[in-house]
Write a structure and sequence with these properties.
The chain is of the alpha/beta class. It has 2 domains: 140 residues, Thiolase/Chalcone synthase (Peroxisomal Thiolase, Chain A, domain 1), CATH 3.40.47; 227 residues, Thiolase/Chalcone synthase (Peroxisomal Thiolase, Chain A, domain 1). The protein contains 14 helices and 11 strands. Strands 3-2-4-7-1-8-11-10-9 form a 9-stranded mixed β-sheet, sandwiched between helices. A two-stranded antiparallel ribbon has the order 5-6. It binds coenzyme A (COA). Coenzyme A binds next to helix 5 and helix 6.
Length: 388
Amino acid sequence: MRKAVIIGAGMVPVSEHWKLSLRDMAVEALLNAMDDAGIDKVDSLYVGNMASGSFVEQENLGALIADWAGLGHIPAVKVEAACASGGAAVQEGAKAVMSGLEDVVAVVGVEKMTDAWPSDATRYLAYAADADWELFHGASFVALNALIMRLYMKEYNYTEEDLALFAVNAHANGAKNPYAMFRRPISVETVMKSPYVADPVKLFDASPVCDGSAAVIITTPEKAKELGVPKEKWVEVAGMGRAIDTINLANREDFLTLTAAKIAAERAYGMAGVTPKEVDFFEVHDAFTVMAALSLEALGVAKKGEGAKLAREGQIAIDGDYPIQTMGGLKSRGHPVGATGVYQTVEAVLQLRGEAPEGIQVPDAEIGLTQNIGGTGSNITVNVLRRV
Ligand code: COA
């Protein structure tokens, strides 16, 4: 199997983009990544997107984006794995390069959510749950995560204030990231004073509905050399794992274990030949604060029931033992669902190149991990990235 390295990364700020359409955002992020790599063509395009058909009545994104970016008659396809679409698209791109089928691949993650009415957006997101057994009965993602959060607090004796610490950490980092949607630090009090969306999930426990696009260029080390991309820019896709769990939350043996994340992480660590202790930072899927705690446990960073303890002890900050959400995570940078996994990848690339903004650069970062969750943990990707 060949090695895959990321040689270009680009994005647009996450926001409510009233003046940019889905195609505008995607083409801008893609061209930024191609400029960063110093190339003007690619062999193929993989698009991570969750629900463009519902949000903006546009499917066939492979053709749309390749066409509008002027990439010619290349193969281009959309990859869908709910909110994990971006992480899965990065994996499909890396796999194409590793297999020897394609030499230079572009991966774009994009989602335009804010054109929809809020009630419609909630319904479109819930299409990633079990339509017959969850959506039909009125369960939204906020509601399902509220059940998980309540159980987590009850089972392990945590308070809402404990979980609020994940949002505080995310905003502290996101405040320094020019591409983040919410660029202001917050306190536990801010979280506690925010309105309940679905008790105990409050506004500041939740990631926002937003728009965004991010892109990376993947190739082999040999081709990167041939293209003249300086080695300092290369970041290896060292390990990849993906797994599913029951789509219906009620069918899980244990509501408080992200089994798919555990399996995906074992695969990714195994492929990269690293242990959680060797990872310098973790971009985890904090769509809701409780998901950050469960993710740290599934990734082997914390013991079961102790994910929130790491936040209490300050270990998740940039200068802690296990920095997470270094650029704001889903809570502060934003969560344009199908694009999120690619944002996490771009942010990890910047960290590993030493190009993160001042105040949020993890010192001497060599290995980073991205974890992207679809559904309430039903489809999860984990990627381990390494500085070359
Ligand atoms: N965190 C902080 N502030 C937020 C926010 C968030 N998650 N979402 C919205 N806001 C702010 C807005 O900027 C706005 O501020 P302003 O009045 O100063 O302009 C205000 O709160 C109201 O925004 P609005 O868009 O009207 O909020 P809403 O009530 O329609 O939506 C949620 C809020 C939490 C319901 C919505 O963001 C949501 O559904 N989030 C979850 C998304 C989700 O499930 N993703 C998939 C996960 S798997």
